[in-house]
Amino acid sequence: MMNRIDKVFPKEFGNDYKGHKIALYFFYFFTILTVVRSLIHMFSADGGAQSIATIPLDTYTDGGASTVILIFSLWGLSQLIMGLLYVIVCWRYKSLIPLMYLFLFIEYLMRLVLMTLKPIETTGTAPGGVINYIFVPLAILLFFLSIKSRK
C-alpha cells in the first residue's frame, strides 16, 4: 500500500490517479477556471480590476490606474502559467493531483491572509473575495479525497 507521502510526492510521475473520482473532476474544473480567469486578467481592458474586482480605477490618476491594470495583467500571466501546469497534470501526470491540491489550498489560504493584512478599497464585493472562503475548505477536502485510495 502506497503511503500518503508517496501519494503527495510520487517517486515517479505518471498518469495513474488513485484518488476519488470527485477530486479528479473538481481538479478539471479548477484547471478550466484558472486558465479562463488568467486570460480575463491578461486581456480585458482593465485587467478585471474594476469590472470584476470593483476597484474604483476611475478615481485613480491615470498612472495609478495603469499600474493596477498592469499588476492585474501580470497576475493573469502567473495564473496562466499555473493553469498550464494544471493542464499538463490533467493530460499526462495525474499522479500529481494531490500535490496540486496542496498548492491550491496554499494559494487560496494566502489570498485570505493577504487580503486581511493588506486590504484595498473596493466599491463592491468581488467574486474572488467570496470564492476564496469556499475554495480553502474545498481544496483541503479534495486533497484528502485525492489521497484516499479507491476500492
From TrEMBL:
Sorted alphabetically, the keyword list is: Membrane, Transmembrane, Transmembrane helix
- UniProt entry tagged with the keyword Transmembrane helix: yes
Query: Where, by residue number, does the polypeptide cross the bilayer?
Result: 21-43, 63-89, 96-117, 129-147
UniProt superkingdom: Bacteria
**Record protein name field:** DUF805 domain-containing protein
Q: Which organism is it from?
A: Flammeovirga kamogawensis
